Amino acid sequence: VKLPYTLATEEAERIGLDHVARIVSGGESASSKTADQLTAQHSAIKMLAGRVRLILQYVKAVEKGELPQNHEILRQIKSLSHRLPVLQSDRFQPEFLTQCNDVALMTLLGTVMKSANNLNQFVNKFAVSYQRQGRRMRGLFF
Questions:
Q1: pLDDT for 54-102, tens place per residue?
Q2: Can you tell me whether residue 88 is helix, strand or coil?
Q3: Cα–Cα dist 82/58, whole Å
Q4: Closest CA to 111 of 49, 20, 8
Q5: By the 8 A CB rule, do 18 and 34 touch?
Q6: pTM of the full predicted structure?
C-alpha cells in the first residue's frame, strides 16, 4: 500500500543525521558540518568566557581601589549584564530542558543508527557465510 507522506525536519536534526551518516560511512575520523560547527561554538564560548573573566577582574580591581572608577565603562558593564538572559527565569528552564532532551534524543538516534548499521553488516556477513556453507548449516537455525 503506497501512502503519501511528507518529511519535516529541523536544521539541528539534519545536521545530526549528516554527522551520524558521515561517521557510519567513513569511520570515526570523518569530519562533518556538525564537528566544524561545534568547534566554532567551542572557540566562541572560550573567547566569551575570557572576556567575561576580564570584565570581572576589572570590576574587582575597581572595588579594591586598585584601578580608578571609569563611569562610562561601568555603565557599559551594567548595560551588558542587563541584556544577558537570567538563567533562573521561568522561560529559561523549560527551553533548557527541551534543548537537553533534543540533544539526548539525537545522541540516541545516532547510536541506534550505528547499531542498525552494525547489525546489517553482521547479517550480510552471515548470509555470505551461509551461502558458502550450503545446506550443512540449515539445521542450525531453520
A1: 999 999 999 999 999 999 999 999 888 887 766 667 777 888 889 889 9
A2: coil
A3: 18
A4: 20
A5: yes
A6: 0.43
